[in-house]
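Protein data sheet
==================
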Amino acid sequence: GSTTKEKMLAMEGVRVGPPPPAQVSFGF
């Protein structure tokens, strides 16, 4: 669920919020 996605983003060092251009390239 969203919790897993948040954990994955946290592992990548990305905070939950507006996805940066790099994140868009990853398909997030």
